[in-house]
Design brief:
This is L-ornithine N(5)-monooxygenase. Helix content is 30%, strand content 16%. By secondary structure, the protein is an alpha/beta fold. A hairpin with a 3-residue loop joins β14 and β15. α1 packs parallel to α15 and α15 packs parallel to α17. The model has no long low-confidence stretch (mean pLDDT 95).
Length: 536
């Protein structure tokens, strides 16, 4: 935008939530622009470029449910790659005629609420961009990289976070170190291990990865699937929003032999089924969880030749409850540790002491390296919003409102979509919503429709401002806390609980009460005229 514009809405972030909101707002007659720092659509799928990058959700659950979109699009694989997801989102923009409503290469640095004018002032590095009634940051939950403090890291010339893998980087024939074995780490390890001279994997927590079971899709398979698409999309309104209906049966309702058969069936099906279609008490009973872990650990040990390596990858004693950290999906990850050129370092036993210009020193050895990859995750859920200078009523900064230190009151929102003191600001796929525990496209549709319905209602009521009150936030925080207490999630230090960032208050960042329950809360709020919100 060449000069400041007056708009009904500014949306930030050109991925699932931002694109869907742009479409709905434009369709509903609001003046709107979508701003993104990247030069194309996709968000994390635009700039994340490491080898093997793909989604862990199978077709058709990682796409929009609008018939005019899914009827014409053809996925090539059951679990699409990053490149194919980018192509899909670009195609969505063209199909919905919204591409020209996006300003790329526009990094938003600040958003300030003007109480007198009752609008948001949106800034970039070049100054004031827009004045807008509604501000909708759709900035994603894996946007801001997290890099632990390693002495000397800045001295290593070819060190990259996994989200910043250079386009032209080839590690073939090189000595590579990788810190972290989350989803990115697993995908990178699988893909580079056959071609590198040496691969040193620095593991803190074993990843309880389950089989991917990738499948190439042809026209016949796609045709068969599309006859079931409407029913499959309806399935998304389940506990975690995936294509998995958790059985009502509990773990010990079956005998040992029956459990083995059931677990194996889930393993053979692949994807996230061993996590999300398992026994009803998997995530609420320690004993039930241990049974699932036992099956998983044995399956790993059967694939790894060296017992000492197998013990690090799948310890007898689970490092945390299965499924309370998101299990990654793998095809050949565990077999990679049978290769002579792959070394596994348990940093709990031998921590990293120093990074030198030519390698990494642990408490036991020095590992000479050419490239160091930091697959160390993200300041998830809240990081992307807190890096912006967002100021609400009275100039109060969002960082001040959401103080995340151990002694703070923690994050407060209403319905995981708004927060008191920041009128007319909506943040889909944000904290205290299913977000990372639901399907991103589904959450984009559900929350996006709620937001646009709310703005349409305000327009009909001739009102300009909506803001949640403190009591509504307390009620929603209590709902989040109680939902977490009904599960084992709170016992694990994970990014779901904000515990991967040192010094942060441990609290549920994702709503753990289930997608269906969350959607009901949204419907009730709208049907009752938005109780708990000040409207003026």
């Amino acid at each position: 935008m060449a000069s400041p514009k007056k708009l009904d809405a500014v949306v930030v972030g050109a991925s699932w939530a931002g694109l869907w909101l742009l479409y709905l707002l434009k369709k509903s007659g609001f003046t709107v622009r979508l701003l993104d720092a990247c030069e194309g659509v996709g968000g994390v799928w635009y700039y994340t470029n490491y080898p093997g990058c793909r989604v862990d959700t199978e077709v058709p659950f990682y796409e929009f449910s609008l018939p005019e979109l899914w009827k014409d699009w053809k996925w090539s694989e059951k679990f699409p790659s990053r490149a194919e997801i980018r192509d899909y989102l670009l195609w969505v923009c063209q199909k919905l005629n919204i591409y020209e409503d996006i300003d790329f290469g526009t990094r938003i640095t600040a958003a300030h609420w003007d109480e007198q004018a009752r609008h948001w002032r949106i800034f970039s590095g070049q100054g004031l961009l827009a004045e807008t009634t509604y501000f909708v940051p759709c900035t994603g939950y894996t946007t801001i990289k997290h890099v632990p403090t390693f002495p000397g890291l800045e001295s290593f010339p070819l060190a990259y976070h996994s989200s910043e893998w250079p386009e032209n980087l080839s590690v073939t024939g090189m000595r590579v170190g990788i810190v972290g074995t989350g989803a990115s780490g697993i995908q990178i390890i699988e893909n580079v291990a056959p071609d590198v001279k040496k691969l040193v994997v620095f593991q803190r927590t074993p990843n309880m990865a389950t089989p991917l079971r990738q499948e190439v899709l042809n026209d016949d398979l796609r045709g068969q699937m599309k006859t079931r698409y409407p029913a499959l999309f309806d399935q998304r309104v389940s506990r975690f929003g995936f294509n998995a209906d958790r059985p009502t049966k509990k773990t010990f309702d079956d005998n040992a032999e029956q459990r083995e058969v059931f677990y194996k069936r889930l393993f053979d099906r692949g994807g996230l089924h061993f996590w999300l279609a398992n026994y009803d008490d998997l995530l609420s009973s320690r004993e039930a969880n241990q049974e699932a872990y036992r099956f998983w650990a044995k399956s790993v040990r059967d694939r790894v030749r060296d017992p000492s390596v197998a013990a690090k990858l799948a310890p007898v004693q689970a490092p945390h409850a299965f499924g309370t950290k998101r299990p990654s999906l793998e095809t050949s990850y565990f077999e990679r540790f049978n290769q002579d050129n792959v070394v596994l370092i348990d940093v709990n036993e031998h921590p990293i002491e120093q990074v030198l210009p030519n390698g990494v020193r642990t408490s036991q050895d020095f590992h000479e390296l050419d490239v160091l990859i930091l697959a160390t995750g993200f300041d998830a859920i809240v990081g992307s919003m807190l890096t912006m200078d967002i100021r609400g009523v009275g100039g109060r900064h969002l960082r001040e409102k959401w103080m995340l230190s151990d002694d703070s009151a923690g994050i407060h929102t209403s319905l995981g979509l708004m927060t008191e003191g920041f009128p007319n600001m909506f943040f889909p796929i944000g904290p205290q919503a299913p977000s990372a525990l639901g399907l991103t496209p589904q959450m984009a549709e559900v929350q996006g429709q709620w937001i646009v319905d709310c703005l349409t209602w305000l327009r009909l009521e001739n009102k300009a401002v909506i803001e949640p009150d403190h009591q509504a936030e307390e009620v929603w925080k209590a709902e989040n806390d109680q939902a977490a207490k009904r599960t084992l999630f709170g016992e694990t230090d994970s990014w779901y609980m904000g515990a991967n960032i040192q010094g942060r208050k441990k609290q549920p960042l994702c709503y753990l009460g289930g997608v269906h329950r969350y959607i009901n809360f949204l419907k009730e709020a709208a049907a009752q005229g938005y109780p708990g919100f000040h409207v003026r």
